[in-house]
Amino acid sequence: MRKHLSILLAIGLLSSCGAAYHSSRVVEGAADGNKVRVLPITAQNVLLANRSPYTPRELPAAFHSSAGAAGSLYGGGPAPAPIHAAPTRPDALETRLPPARKPAPYRIGVGDVVLLATPTGTSVEQLTGLLAAQNSRQGYTVQDDGSIAIADIGRVEIAGLTLQDAEALLFQRLVKAQIDPTFSLEIAEFNSKKVSLGGAVAKPGVLPITLSPLRLKEALAQVGGATTRTPEYSSVRLYRDGTIYQIPLKQLFSDARLGELPLLAGDSLFVDDRYDLDQAEAYFRQQIQLAEFRQASRGAALSNLTTEIALRRNELDEQRRTYLDQVRLDAVDRDYVYLTGEVKSQGRMDLPLGRQASLADAIFKGANGLSIKTADPRHVYVLRGSHDPMEFNALTAWQLDLRNAANLALAARFELRPNDVIFVAEQPVTRWSRTIDQISPSLISIGANAVNN
Predict the structure, then answer these.
(1) Domains of the chain
(2) N or C: which end of the chain has fewer CB within 10 A?
């Protein structure tokens, strides 16, 4: 009699599985004070759901800033005023000419501007991928390392080369890059080799040396000529390689061969109507001192700028570290969604900064995917409350049916909103299996008692 009673009790337990195990599910309609409506996630409904207003939070400004290279160059101030000695008149001027040198072909230097041009047309035409980012009249400036940077080719070192050698090198690089090598090269601006002129001239200044050799008479003509009122007592002094040479101005005007003297890069000319070499020597010493002063001033300015950039970078790094520490301590206001149900990782997921997150992001990144054994692919829900205060208890359950894997594309377009809950229901067989797991100890105990009795 007891055996039969035990068996009947076991059958009764099995028949009351629904009372023995309760699991979460989405119930449509009005229940527990909430109004729940279930809408399928379709292409049209994705557009409807994404209409709800939401602007993602942004990263702090420190993450959008860089130390940069902009800043003020604080040097040593303006150069000192030049000092000139009192004029005197010589009895006779000695002629000291520099050693004869044959002008060498022009070699490209740092600061020169070169243009790449097609052989036809009336203006510089762009080569494919070469001059797309520059003004047609600017070309390429030879940088401090002696190179020019050409898109699709890279850096090409042309400093120290003649124009012909540079063309040959560019031809090889274009062929190597499989680019049509039909081009011509010309120098648009000559900035690397210069001659300075001062003293008794109309317009003291610096003259560039170009493809054509710069002659002494041409240099004097470009600065407006000598302005001395006593040419018989004046001279042109040439400072070259640490030596001062002298040509009397009157002799220069009378002997045309002296005017053909070629000038070299770094030469300094001084038209002097003073008695001795002191003024010229003072001028050249002054030029050297000014160059050293400017170089030292620029070095100090660059050092100050480097320090300023380092301070900016350290400040930005500190701001970023502080923000990341606040995030780690959960002390920063963030937007979240919540993952529950039959997913591999339940919990809270931070919504990204500066961009929208999708349902696919939550499933595959936040939850690490669905539980293959227990999840019901028919019932993947995004539970979203109403933003209308008058409908505070209204809730929309957006249902995604993943039996059709093509619907994953809809998940990738479905945007999440703060406080969304992603819920994945369990399989019916999972609910039954868990019920059995919970009542198995009772069944085993009842069966054992029935056998013993």
Answers:
(1) 15-57+334-437 (3.10.560.10), 113-189 (3.30.1950.10), 194-273 (3.10.560.10)
(2) N
